[in-house]
Amino acid sequence: MSASDGRAPSGLADPLEAGRNTHDPDGVEEALALVSGRTLRPDPARGPERSPEAADGGGHRAVSWPQARSIAARAGRGGPVRTQRVALDQAVGRVLGEPLTALCDLPPFDTSAMDGWAVAGPGPWTVSGGDSVLAGQSAPPPLEDGTAVRIATGARIPPEATAVIRSEHARTDAGQRLLHAERSVSQGQDIRSRGQECRLGDRLLPAACAVTPAVLGLAAAAGYDELAVVRRPRVEVLVLGDELLTAGRPHDGLIRDALGPMLGPWLGALGAEVVAARRLGDDAGALRRAVTASEAEVIITTGGTAAGPVDHVHPVLRETDATLLIDSVAVRPGHPMLLAALAASGGGPEGVSPARYLVGLPGNPLAAVSGLLTLAEPLLRGLVGLPAPAPYRMPVRVPVQGHPYDTRLVPFVHHDDGLTPVRYSGPAMLRGIAAADGLAVVPPGGARPGDELEVLELPWVPGAFSADV
């Protein structure tokens, strides 16, 4: 694949160049306005509006890496979040589509926190001759003042009981008829009161929380059989390139397709539902038909984003009346990546909202990973209503070479005292990222030992790091 020259192709609207002003420094509002068909009031400080053709001229520059992430996230948040109801056993890993509210009090009744004795009033207590009170039984009879009864953890507290004494803190006399406490007993001790954790109708969690196993347990305890979750964005992967093999070893100028096997699981880890993954080769007609026929919310293409003789993504976007939101990002590897809006539909907060997107990834494998984390990940987060994770930074242990003007994304491994970049991190290499814990965001000019760098984690637990990587 040929390298991008960083220019927007003629005929595609470039909202970013026109959107550079003090009120919209990232060009986000201009971008979304063009997608939705809205007209923004011109900024007098900018002078006359520029036509799309003028904006697409030689003055076009790649957007910065932070700008690209912001635009992708805001684009994903431009439309309504769709929800569905699923059984609890299908909800782990999904995102709550509405707040989780308690359907009952928790606990639903007063229960014993310990195995021991339920007692009423001051002691010593006469031991009741009845059966022990066990969990799962119906309401026990009231406990008379000065009496005690055996009780199990989780069992309902008998009416009129004032405390629970742990088994190890009590003793009975030789006849097993009188109970003595070996420690002081306070009112209500070791009793879990009804509603101690929550009351009916209490808001337990807001919408947009990830459904973890703990959330699943809380929902079950609160009375849920199913949950309202956000529908996974449907994603279709289109692998481009006549040089790619799907099986066997590389030969005769052909290489194995590394992105096809990688993208589906990676996108799934980012919360997407991959509905199809197809290899189209370098066929402009096939790409155009696939883009126009797809019903996915997001199309991911690999390769073809530059300006070479078989780079067909830009021409197809022109022919399908797409709106280019991002064309090239000032990041290495992966600067020829792009983001385009393919369609719009009614129902958004201002009358219309973006409905379908295309993320064009470069063909080199590590460059494609850069595109995934730069554009696809924030776009998908926006589509499911998830906020961006709070950024965090860690010091780097060794000098890291930077690009003179662009951000670099460098695979690294964690150590107790900081980050160490891995070897084999060229744009076409996957050996380094396969052993990495994440990518470090290296600003233009590089970093010195001790400098703190922003960290992008990978959406899975990495394997053990080998010392020779």
Automatic annotation (TrEMBL):
<dbReference type="InterPro" id="IPR036688">
    <property type="entry name" value="MoeA_C_domain_IV_sf"/>
</dbReference>
<keyword id="KW-0808">Transferase</keyword>
<keyword id="KW-0479">Metal-binding</keyword>
<comment type="pathway">
    <text>Cofactor biosynthesis; molybdopterin biosynthesis.</text>
</comment>
<protein>
    <recommendedName>
        <fullName>Molybdopterin molybdenumtransferase</fullName>
        <ecNumber>2.10.1.1</ecNumber>
    </recommendedName>
</protein>
<dbReference type="GO" id="GO:0046872">
    <property type="term" value="F:metal ion binding"/>
</dbReference>
<dbReference type="InterPro" id="IPR005110">
    <property type="entry name" value="MoeA_linker/N"/>
</dbReference>
<feature type="compositionally biased region" description="Basic and acidic residues">
    <location>
        <begin position="40"/>
        <end position="53"/>
    </location>
</feature>
<comment type="similarity">
    <text>Belongs to the MoeA family.</text>
</comment>
<dbReference type="GO" id="GO:0061599">
    <property type="term" value="F:molybdopterin molybdotransferase activity"/>
</dbReference>
<keyword id="KW-0500">Molybdenum</keyword>
<dbReference type="InterPro" id="IPR036425">
    <property type="entry name" value="MoaB/Mog-like_dom_sf"/>
</dbReference>
<dbReference type="GO" id="GO:0005829">
    <property type="term" value="C:cytosol"/>
</dbReference>
<dbReference type="Pfam" id="PF03453">
    <property type="entry name" value="MoeA_N"/>
</dbReference>
<keyword id="KW-0460">Magnesium</keyword>
<dbReference type="InterPro" id="IPR001453">
    <property type="entry name" value="MoaB/Mog_dom"/>
</dbReference>
<dbReference type="Pfam" id="PF03454">
    <property type="entry name" value="MoeA_C"/>
</dbReference>
<dbReference type="InterPro" id="IPR038987">
    <property type="entry name" value="MoeA-like"/>
</dbReference>
<feature type="domain" description="MoaB/Mog">
    <location>
        <begin position="236"/>
        <end position="382"/>
    </location>
</feature>
<dbReference type="GO" id="GO:0006777">
    <property type="term" value="P:Mo-molybdopterin cofactor biosynthetic process"/>
</dbReference>
<comment type="function">
    <text>Catalyzes the insertion of molybdate into adenylated molybdopterin with the concomitant release of AMP.</text>
</comment>
<feature type="region of interest" description="Disordered">
    <location>
        <begin position="1"/>
        <end position="65"/>
    </location>
</feature>
<keyword id="KW-0501">Molybdenum cofactor biosynthesis</keyword>
<dbReference type="InterPro" id="IPR005111">
    <property type="entry name" value="MoeA_C_domain_IV"/>
</dbReference>
<dbReference type="Pfam" id="PF00994">
    <property type="entry name" value="MoCF_biosynth"/>
</dbReference>
<dbReference type="InterPro" id="IPR036135">
    <property type="entry name" value="MoeA_linker/N_sf"/>
</dbReference>
